[in-house]
Design goal:
Radius of gyration: 34 Å
Distance between the termini: 109 Å
Strand content: 5-15%
Order of helices and strands: EEEHHHHHHHHEEEHEEHHHH
Strand order of the largest sheet: 1-2-3
CATH architecture of the largest domain: Orthogonal Bundle
Mean pLDDT: 81
Number of helices: 13
Low-confidence stretches: 268-273, 376-388
Number of strands: 8
CATH topology of the largest domain: hpI Integrase, Chain A
Structural class: alpha+beta
Helix content: 25-40%
Length: about 400
């Protein structure tokens, strides 16, 4: 055997070179692999004293908070399936092949039961207004609420979308909430796949709300002092806020400049942050009166009373809280509208359209009007602007009739 280092001829079978001591037999016999990739493995559990069969049944992405690191974006977490209780390793390995063909025993939950689990988990992660849209969109899947989620098909979801009479934005929210529910269900082993990716919502057409007429606005004004929330609805007609935005306004957002009141808004809208809305002279007295209501920092709070009884027939005031969109529509706007003969198709959002219609005939530039309505388009072609000139905003509001 020739030494590769000193070229000395050594006897056959020599392990080391007789001249320089170089090791001659360096290659080892390769161990034959007993099991192929993906066929599973077995390990011993020393606590319970039995063998466990294990296979890898796919991979999932890392949690969202780990994906911020670019090095983690290509990593996957293996999804493992196991079966325990085997006395011998051979029995555990033999079961691996059967384990690959075993379908998971999904928990038999209805769509509404899945939603009840998902609601407290997801709602803290988004703002209140966004989750309110998801909650309203989920109501349009009412035909499937009592159906087990594993039995719902993409066609069932599509039918609910097609049957929904609401506008394009509602259809978008329906598809979004369905995707969130199925993603949650896949992560928690409630279903085996997401069926919402190819739902079609179409272009659709936005629902055009009918504004409140001048006669209807005047009827509402005459109820101020007689109806507890009439002032709220009347103020909404001259502020231009969305109902949910107005109900979240706090007293410290009301400022005064040269004897004129205006409201600042720090939350993000389509027109940007720090939206400024001057208070119209017709509702200035209402705003000032709301500022002096004790016991709450909300400008438009909800009143709470105890129910009357035989001993105390007069309800007792209990305090204030923030009013929800649903309560404002159901218990503030709708009862007053019915008494005044306002049509059923008018909703609190109609007051925003009333303000928008009044802006059309007001003085001021398109940019100023778009800033007041809090919209990035407002029937014009400009985008991403927000007027910060308070004098221009005040002059435009003052010209509203």
């Amino acid at each position: 055997m020739l030494c590769p280092k000193c070229k000395t001829d050594n006897p056959a079978g020599a392990i080391f070179c007789n001249q320089c001591g170089k090791k001659l037999q360096t290659t080892k016999k390769r161990r034959v692999k007993s099991r192929g990739n993906g066929t599973g493995c077995a390990y011993y559990d020393p606590i319970h004293r039995y063998w466990v069969a294990q296979i890898v049944d796919g991979y999932r992405d890392l949690p969202a908070f780990d994906l911020d690191n670019p090095e983690n974006r290509k990593q996957k977490i293996p999804i493992k399936k196991t079966k325990s209780g085997f006395k011998r390793r051979e029995d555990a390995l033999a079961y691996c092949a059967e384990l690959k063909n075993v379908k998971p025993a999904f928990e038999a939950l209805t769509l509404s039961e899945v939603y009840k689990r998902w609601d407290p988990w997801y709602s803290p992660r988004v703002d209140k207004e966004t989750f309110g849209c998801y909650r309203a969109a989920f109501a349009h899947f009412s035909a499937l609420h009592d159906t087990q989620i594993r039995e719902i098909s993409a066609g069932d979801l599509q039918k609910c979308l097609d049957d929904c009479p609401r506008g394009h934005r509602t259809h978008q929210n329906m598809k979004c909430v369905a995707g969130l529910l199925w993603a949650y269900s896949v992560d928690n082993n409630l279903v085996d796949k997401d069926i919402t990716r190819n739902l079609f919502i179409g272009r659709g057409a936005s629902v055009q709300r009918e504004p409140l007429t001048d006669i209807e606005v005047e009827k509402i004004r005459q109820q101020i002092g007689k109806d507890r929330y009439a002032a709220y609805i009347y103020a909404l007609c001259y502020l231009g806020y969305r109902p949910g935005e107005m109900l979240e306004i706090r007293k410290d957002q009301v400022m005064e400049h040269d004897g004129k009141l205006f409201i600042t808004e720090g939350k993000k809208t389509d027109a940007g942050r720090d939206r400024v809305v001057p208070v119209h002279s017709k509702i200035e007295a209402i705003i000032r009166q709301q500022l002096y209501i004790p016991g709450t920092d909300l400008l438009f709070p909800q009143y709470h009373f105890t129910r009357g009884s035989q001993e105390e027939p007069v309800p007792l005031f209990r305090g204030f809280s923030e009013m929800s969109d649903n309560y404002f529509n159901k218990y503030a706007f709708r009862p007053l509208a019915d008494r005044l003969g306002i049509p059923k198709n008018k909703v609190p959002y109609s007051a925003r359209h009333t303000f928008s219609d009044k802006l059309k005939d007001a003085e001021g530039t398109d940019k100023t009007k778009a800033a007041l309505i809090g919209h990035s388009d407002y029937s014009f072609t400009q985008k991403k602007y927000q007027s910060t000139n308070l004098d221009e905003l005040t002059a435009t509001v003052a010209s509203i009739k």
